[in-house]
Amino acid sequence: MPLNHLQIKEILDENRAHECEGYGKDHICVQIASIAELPSRFGQFQVVAFWNNRDGKEHAAFVHGDVMGAENVPVRVHSECLTGDAIGSLRCDCRDQLETALKTIGEMENGILLYLRQEGRGIGFVNKIRAYGLQDYGYDTVEANLALGFRDDEREYSVAAHMLDSLKVKSIRLLTNNPKKINELAAYGIKISERLPLIIPPNPYNEFYLRTKATKSGHLLSIGDKVRLPEQGDQPIVAGMTSEQIGALHQGEDLVVGG
User: Fold this and answer.
1) Which of 49, 101, 187, 220 could form a disulfide with 76 if both were Cys (CB 3.0 to 4.6 A apart)?
2) List of residues 6+ apart from 1 with CB closer than 8 A
3) Same domain assignment for residues 59 and 18
C-alpha cells in the first residue's frame, strides 16, 4: 500500500526541520518538501519532491507501493535528460531507459525511480549541446566532454543516497548498467542486494554513443554481435585458473581463485 495521509503528515513534519551533517564531500543534506498522488500511464505512483542544501535544485522520487522500511526495493537512479526524456532524442537511450524503468517498477510490488537534476552527465544543458556540436564533427561523448574541460562523467550520487535514506529504504535492487552508480551508492552506505540490467537496443543514431559508454565508460552493455563484454552476466576467466575453476563458472558455482 502507498503512504496514507497520516504517514505523509508525519514525514513532512519530520523533514520540515531536518538538518544533518550531510553526505559526501559537499555535505549534501536533502529534505522532503511535499508528497502527492501521481497516477501515470506506467501505474499508480506517489511523487516525493526533494530539496537539497548544495545548489537548491529540486529532485524527485516516483514511488510505487510501500517502500518505507522495505528491503530489496527495485530502484532506478535516472539523471535528467531534456532532449531525450522530453523531446525523444535518438542520440541517446535516456527516454527508453526512463520509460522501461517506470514500466518495470509499475508492474512490481513496489519500487522507486529517483529523478536527479544532473543534465548532460552533470555538465548542464548548455555544455551538453556544446558537446553534441563536437560530436557532430566526429568526437565521441567522452572526447567531447574532455575537450570542454570536464571529466567523462561529472554526476555524483550523494543526493540519491540521502533520498533513499529519507525514504527509510533498507536495501535496493538497482536497475543500472553503470558500475559507477553501484560503487558510489555503496560508498554512501546504500545496501545493494542485486543489479538489474536495463538493456535498450541501439538505433542508428545512438549505437556509437552506446559503444563508447561500454568501451570507455565501463557500462555493462553488449552492442551488436561483434561486441561481447565479460561483465554482461559472465564471470571473467583470468590467467592461472584451473580447468575445474573454469568449469565451475559455467555451472554457476561460487569460486575462490588463487586460494
Assistant:
1) 101
2) 65, 66
3) yes
* Residue span of the structural domain in which 240 resides: 231-259
Q: Which three cell numbers stand for residue 202?
A: 541501439
The three cell numbers locating residue 62: 516516483
> Which strand (E) or helix (H) includes residue 146?
helix 141-147
- Co-location of 224 and 236 in the same domain: no
**How many structural domains compose the chain?**
2
Q: What phi and psi values does residue 97 have, to the nearest 5 degrees?
A: -65, -40
Over residues 20-47, the pLDDT tens digits come to: 877 878 788 889 999 999 999 999 999 9
The sign of the torsion formed by the CA atoms of 86, 88, 90, 96 equals: positive
pTM of the complete model: 0.78
Q: Are 34 and 15 in contact (CB under 8 A)?
A: no
As given in the structure block, the three cell numbers for residue 137 are 564533427
Catalytic residues: 153, 155
Residue 23 CB: number of other CB atoms within 10 A? 24
| Chain Cα centroid distance, residue 227 | 23
Q: Whose CA is closest to 222, among 242, 201, 243?
A: 201
Closest CA to 57 of 86, 87, 26: 26
